[in-house]
Specification:
6-stranded mixed β-sheet, Rossmann fold, elongated, 17 strands, GMP Synthetase, Chain A, domain 3, alpha/beta
Length: 462
Amino acid sequence: MASPRRLTVAIIGRPNVGKSTLFNRLAGKKLAIVDDTPGVTRDWRSADGHLAGIELTVVDTAGLEEAFDDSLEARMRRQTERAIERADVGLFIVDARAGITPLDRHFAAWLRKGKTPIILVANKCEGNAGKPGLMECYELGLGDPVPLSAEHGEGMADLVEALTPYLPPDEPEDEEAEAEEPLDDEAAEARDNAKPLQLAIVGRPNVGKSTLLNSLLGEERVLTGPEAGMTRDAIAAEWSWRDRPVKLVDTAGLRRRARVEDKLEKLAVADTLRVVRMAHVVVLVLDADAILDKQDLTIARQVIEEGRGLVIAVNKWDAVANRAEALQQLSDRLETSLPQARGIPTITISALKQQKLDVLLDAAFEVYRLWNRRIPTAQLNRWLQGMLESHPPPLVDGRRLKIRYMTQVKARPPTFALFSSRPVEIPEHYTRYLINGLRETFKLPAVPLRFLLRKGSDNPFD
């Protein structure tokens, strides 16, 4: 079959004209934070989209501001310029209800000089309120405007017609393509290795998450600076490390819930938690000056409860005076506060100076391997028999609990089912004994283990 034709489309315009709404519409899901407050989007982000048979890579950008210094607005504008340069076509969005503004005219003149072809889109054209603004669009010199309503999905057929001339030519169909054959175990493992590792970077505000992502990619992909809370949307970037595909996701900083009052921050926190749920491995970035405070522990517990692999990166390590004391403090806090995930890799890094980033990624891929680990049932039950002989289950009401057998029901994370005559009466300390034994015997540090207690007979096939 012929491969679908794909376009990279950058959505650009001044603040609050509906760029993120159109991005979500084309992506088919609510990925970008949408709010009436201008300047919500600060970094460009991309997603796969689909529109009437056209495959899209849709890029949402920050609102264009007339700023050319080192301010946050100027850095946002430079990020948008990079996104436009990489696109096949740009969608310049104006607010038809507000009419054409001097800022629209300024940026239209700038876009006309660029190499990227531009389609003018008049948003918010539902009803009659946008008609005067639609007529004003012709003065921008960007051709016929495409009237639509991103919020209500009106005018998408006109947008398809405007995008069609920029589509690449069809590729010929491969008539000799053979039907796919079933994969053997080695081929299936190779296929899984070819899938990108979903690696999320989380932490408190201003600990260096965005700097870490930029250092790993080797470019200024996201905005960085001294301002706390700069990242709002979760920003994903496709990348490859040692021939292994990685999808890096930078997230908004997570503060204590009691301090989160602003509506935009609440939306950003919800977006970060969504990313954690979708991740394979999460890198929790700590500030070396405040190692593993209460909020860091809360984030770590959330990651473990979601069943994700966890790696801790202690950033700004180059500025630490007493490193032995700092490491001991971190070790003590992990031992006492996170016993449910012992053996979490702890890597000391400097994101700004790009120190020990390879070590960090080695640890992330090792945690990912353990997170996918499967243990044969026969091997599990031989281990279980030895554990029961070393430390038999306790007596309950004068009777010994009978533990029949166990099996691993799934991976990602490793999840085990233990079958017993009276599962609800197995005390928690005995469950911890078995979990700790599993970790030690089968070398499963750093990943959360889930233990399900089930009622079962002596026959495992019953």
